[in-house]
Amino acid sequence: MAPLKNLAYKTVRGGAWGKTSSRLIITHGLLGSSSNWATVSRHLADHDLLRSKLHEINMLDMRNHGGSPHVSPHTNAVLASDIEVFALQQQGVHPAHDDGGIVLIGHSMGGLATMAALLRRENEPSLLLPSPEELQMRFTRGDYYGWKDEQGFAQEMRVVNECMGFPAHQPLDVFSSCRKSPSAETSPRHSSGQQQKRALRVKAAVIVDITPMNRIGSTDSNSQRVAATLDAIARADLSRMCNFTEGQKELERAGVREEAMRAFLLTNLVLDHKTGKSRWRCNMPVLRADYGQLGLGLLDWYLNAPVEGRSSDNRMVAPARCALPTLFVFGTQSPYNREEDRHLLDRFFSNVTQAEVQGGHFVHYENIKGFVDTVAPFLAEHL
């Protein structure tokens, strides 16, 4: 599946220009949109620590949400591809002397997609083999500690590369500030017949209220609650939802018990006052069908591999941890803030900072000041 090159997004301008200025790319959670981040983005852009470093903030509508295309599939792997393509497109808009790099911020579903992009690109030497057939043979043989790459992360990286004009198996040098690898200009695998392109430079990441261990679509209570909400939305009769009040009533009748959740869902409702008809901004059928594939598809590779040391079998391929500076922010009352999950973060990321902010799962707009005051020093250090 080709990544999307036409995601809708909103932009908040910062006060910085030139090669010392950076950009934020923000991805929202399931059933959210770029609008969920508009207020906090304005606060970030105007923050004393960031005003002189931040050029702009791009808030995406992920596929099947908001103004972006409604298409299938909707998996962790393709969402990661969409983020990579958008970042490369935005970098192409800015000349090399006017680009200070990118910091990625992702909440919930967007955080899982951001982690997927970071972790798979950290493992380019292991996943971007010159021969896809050899890679598939090694998956079949179990060389990746039993991980089979069911979502096709390796193939998705090749597709992104080709979509953006890079050789299929060329590392994109995403983490240029953390490790040395061939760039688009110097790699011997770069075809002389192709236009030279700058590799993507991601400087840091902020992951909001989600961990790699959250198995979306599993039998745990959080996943079951979200699945039940999606089922309730499918049962709701749009013909009865002609205004906000009637929408609240219909969602409650359909089984959405929490008033706050009903109010959040109604931000996705579009009312046509001329016809009296309504529709969802989100592609509800696809989101429900693919809900079980939103979790981090690389999870089993990381958890199955030994914590320290290497296997005595030289065929085995252990995953590399992402060395990028990464801040995980959790709401103090969030059901996703679990100590047993947070304890495992260093299995995936070697340069992790963790923080808590008073609030729940939507901590970034439940407690805007607390969230901004927490992430601003980290962003100021890495922008």
TrEMBL record:
SUPFAM superfamilies linked to this entry: alpha/beta-Hydrolases
Coiled coil (UniProt feature): none
Annotated spans, Disordered: 177-198
Single GO MF descriptor: hydrolase activity
Keyword annotations: Hydrolase
Compositionally biased region (Polar residues): 178-197
Pfam families listed in its UniProt record: Abhydrolase_1
Listed name of the protein: Abhydrolase domain-containing protein 11
Domain of life the protein comes from: Eukaryota
Residue ranges of domain AB hydrolase-1 in the record: 24-121
